[in-house]
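ok trying again, last paste got cut off:
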Amino acid sequence: MGYLDFIDPGNSGGSVPSPSSPWEGLPPPAPVYYLCSVCGARFKDTDQLFEHRFNEHPHTRPTLILDGREITSPRQIISTPLDENQITLVSADRCFFDAREVAIQSLPKRLANTKAGVHTIQLERQGIETHYEIVFEIAEPQELEFVEHHFLSIVGSDTLSVDRINLFAEMTSKCRTAMRYVDGLCQYLYGVLAKDQRGGTHLNISEYKTKFNLSIDGLSPFDRPLANVVVGIINFTQNAFGDGNALAFSPKLQRAMRTYFGYLNNEGNPSVKEVAWPGNGMGNVPIDHATDQIIQWVLEPDDEAQKHLRQMEAVVDSGEWVPDDRLKVSILLAERLAARQDYIAAKRFARTLAHDAIFSEWAERIMEMDTAQ
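nice, full thing came through this time. structure:
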């Protein structure tokens, strides 16, 4: 390997003159500049270029918005029909549909008219690209209604079991466009059986979360009252508390969800407006025994609540329930005891959540309450 900066002087140790440099006499090389691809400005180093781009050309990533919600996942499933007015493109200069460039203003109508298949969308803006894979599985409304009717009549009116779930799946097997809906509902029901260890299930209790998560994956694309209620039950079970706005068709669940949401956000008592079920009757969406008991405790009046404090304490201390349910009971106990100004007892249950990533702020608020009796 040769070295440009080394010349062998030979045996005479320097009697051989070094050849002149091929660069001798040439002007010094021009300085290197880094160009801004947006405005053409020149900078001596990449740090200056980065600072310029950050301050002068802040880029908003091209974004697809469906029905007011930004699509953040690269793969999106569409199961309900879209109106072109629900489709918005933000910060996009170019658009490609299935690798073919199309006019930006034409994409909403194209998506609204698509009912099936897997399609790719690429949005571009000043060198920034966003890629989406959209899976269209538009279910027929009459099939969705058929599925919901049989769900409420078969598994909502009798003791839940594997046989009842199999009957529901068999009765809805011809609903080809609604199979994702059917599967999401079945996964939820299997999760209930696993969590309760009943109904002839062979699933281990630890598998209930997997079933619940599969159910959310299947039901989330459907903005329907039954799907919203089932997803709401799963979120409540797994302590993902929200404002409950999508749970108007299940007032009890909505009030329980808002109660915990209020606890964690230091808000007052929730208000719930009952809404009639739009079908032939809400029926009874099956829930696991622990969730049913917790909702009953949340909704009971104050004078009744005091009677069950010992029972709730026993649940927390015994470890018979899964950790997520014991956590809910701990929060409810701490709030009930704090309302009675029994702060020492309240702190006992809050202390277990002092280092929890989600509930530590709530626990700290309880821990700071006056200890005076």
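cool. The chain is about 40% helix and 10% strand. Confidence is low (pLDDT under 50) at residues 1-27, 271-282.
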